[in-house]
Specification:
There is one protein chain. The protein is of the alpha/beta class and about 600 residues long. It has 3 domains: about 325 residues; about 30 residues, no CATH class; about 160 residues, Glucose Oxidase, domain 1. About 40% of the residues lie in helices and about 15% in strands. Strand 3, helix 8 and strand 4 form a beta-alpha-beta unit. The protein is globular and about 75 Å long. This is Phosphogluconate dehydratase.
Length: about 600
């Protein structure tokens, strides 16, 4: 094992000792109480089985027959989640074939950041994750389940589902993906048309036609954003079938994988030591971070992984991410980090290649438990149909397309895809996997904006044709829910393409599809908490030095002390579109490095 990976793991274990102890004691108590249905009264059970068929009722009345809860994030306005419409029937039918039953325990919200991007609804996006966690727990609270399967793909949904599942960690758990849509228009053509629209060269109707050629069917969007990073993480943590995440939706192989996942949760129910809490530990999260760095995954997971780990009593911080990134080579180039997408990634061997290479380099814990056994070796396979039967073959340890997946010997970069930045402005992260060498050092005057709309208006007035660092403040979790600022990138990318040196500094987030413009994001402390970002003024010189991990405001300490609490803090008080319902969340949410969550450490609860 790599020494740094071992050191980070041991630091996490030591740091988490008290919280982890409380969590595991809670799980053990639930385990000792035994099968929930056996402890229920007849009236409770009658309510449980009332809507079931006679054959299902007969099965469920047998207290030894497993009953599997299905938590679904289905709706038919998310392309990735529309296929879930039919999954409960497929799952239930397979369960009955195997002398078991299944029930939809509950549905959870599933919003599409692609729809709300740049709009008011995006202010609810990050908050929806903790809401999903609570919704998952509410569904499972009926306590009539012996295991559970989770149907979710997209940005906040998988993290929320896993957080809720971990709160019921005494149950075995399997996550089931829906798969990506086929590839549409090339990502380079799409980016070009977006820039032409920003310049006014094409109208909205023409841009819509282009976008509809990109997002054209059901299934996950094909770029390597947060949704597909979620799928990668679930495999790195051993919670999804091996190398099955990127099999296209609505295909025979996809359906057989869903059936196999159903059989797998039954297998876990029927053997000891493979509940969710038995599988997930500190090593699981280290493996997940390694996977994030090796694939150039979404910067959103510097928030989500911390929040997910917190529920399991595990404390992560950005120093862990940074240390792991420094020793993990970048093995993948999927859009926005390259020109190819997840379908090309799958065809090159997919996660089987990535995990095989990481094991070879000693960068992951290979002795972890997974839903299919012990060891990540089991994930170095590829699912196929042979005579209509699902098989897993071990023929994907070497990439079949080095334009999208490389090797430990020939990585795209010797370091991973994310980096920690520190300095007198605060702590932040930057996605480096899509940046060019000349973008790793930028020193330029600040232009300060309180909103992303302010930057767009400045561009429309022709004020941004120069070198500058856009400081977009008051975008943190306490201010307005930390919406993604992805809508700024066509403008900033256009200015960058004209030869100007530009960057973004913000206490907000960027989309998982971002990365081509240097962006110091998730800055803590955020402006509304009195963070230094609120004291930056126009024309202050900001230095972004990615290689050395520095983000500094080149003003004297004396000058900065004078400015403290002098600038007005802009807080979004607009209550429209349901935002007033989340006032209590904004007031109680933690900062980005603490997971931007309302859930506290178990120590704090005591």
């Amino acid at each position: 094992m790599n020494k740094t990976i071992l050191e980070v793991t041991n630091n996490i274990i030591k740091r988490s000792k008290k919280n982890r102890k409380v969590y595991l004691e809670m799980i053990e108590k639930s385990k000792l109480e035994g099968m929930s249905r056996k402890r229920m009264g007849c009236s409770n059970l009658a309510h449980t089985i009332a809507p079931m068929s006679d054959s299902e009722k007969e099965l469920l009345m047998d207290m030894e027959i497993p009953n599997i809860g299905i938590v679904t994030a289905y709706n038919d306005m998310l392309s990735a989640h529309e296929p879930y419409k039919n999954y409960p029937d497929i799952i239930k039918e397979e369960l009955v074939k195997n002398k078991a039953t299944g029930q939809v325990a509950g549905g959870v919200p599933s919003m599409c950041d692609g729809i709300t991007q740049g709009k008011e609804g995006m202010e609810l996006s990050l908050f929806s994750r903790d809401n999903i966690a609570m919704g998952t727990a509410i569904g499972l609270s009926h306590n009539v389940f012996d295991g559970a399967v989770y149907l979710g793909v997209c940005d906040k949904i998988v993290p929320g589902l896993l957080m809720g599942a971990l709160s019921f960690g005494h149950l075995p758990a399997v996550f089931i993906p829906s798969g990506p849509m086929p590839s549409g228009i090339s990502n380079s053509d799409k980016a070009k048309k977006r820039e032409e629209f920003a310049l006014g060269k094409i109208d909205k109707g023409e841009l819509l036609k282009v976008e509809a050629q990109s997002y054209h069917s059901c299934g996950t969007c094909t770029f390597f954003g947060t949704a597909n990073s979620n799928q990668m993480l679930l495999e790195m943590m051993g919670l999804q079938l091996p190398n099955g995440s990127f099999v296209n939706t609505n295909t025979p192989l996809r359906k057989e994988l869903t059936k196999e996942a159903t059989r797998q949760v039954l297998s876990l129910v029927r053997k000891d030591g493979f509940a969710l809490a038995d599988i997930i530990d500190e090593r699981s999260f280290v493996n997940a971070i390694v996977g994030l760095m090796a694939t150039g995954g979404s910067s959103n997971h510097t928030i989500h992984l911390i929040a997910m780990a917190k529920i399991a009593g595990i404390t992560l911080n950005w120093d862990d991410f940074d240390a792991i990134s420094k020793v993990t080579p970048l093995l993948c180039q999927m859009y926005p980090n390259g020109s190819l997408d997840v379908n090309h990634f799958r065809d090159a061997g997919g996660m089987g290649v990535v995990i095989s290479q990481l094991i070879k380099a000693g960068l992951v814990h290979n002795d972890v438990k997974t839903i299919v056994g012990v060891g990540l070796d089991d994930f170095c396979v590829e699912p196929k149909l042979e005579d209509e039967k699902l098989i897993f073959t071990k023929d994907c340890n070497v990439s079949r397309n080095t334009e999208v997946v490389s090797s430990i010997e020939s990585p795209y970069s010797v370091e991973g895809g994310l980096k920690l930045l520190t300095g007198n402005i605060g702590r932040s992260v930057i996605k480096t996997s899509a940046l060019k060498e000349e973008q790793l050092y930028i020193k330029a005057p600040a232009m300060v904006f309180d909103t992303q709309e302010g930057l767009k208006e400045s561009f429309a007035r022709g004020e941004l044709n120069k070198d500058f660092v856009a400081v977009v403040k008051c975008q943190g979790p306490k201010a307005n829910g930390m919406p993604e600022l992805h809508g700024l990138l066509p403008i900033m990318g256009l200015i960058q393409n004209q030869g100007f040196k530009v960057a973004i500094v913000t206490d907000g987030r960027m989309s998982g599809a971002s990365g081509k413009v240097p962006s110091a994001i998730h800055l803590t402390n955020e402006a509304i908490e009195g963070g230094m970002i609120n004291n930056i003024r126009n024309d202050d010189i900001i230095c972004l030095d990615v290689k050395n991990g520095k983000l500094t405001l080149e003003e004297s300490s004396e000058e900065l002390i004078k400015r403290v609490n002098k600038n007005k803090i802009i807080k979004n008080n607009d209550l429209t579109y349901g935002r007033f319902l989340f006032n209590a969340v904004r007031e109680n949410i933690s900062n980005a490095e603490d997971g931007a969550t309302i859930f506290k450490d178990y120590e704090e609860k005591e």
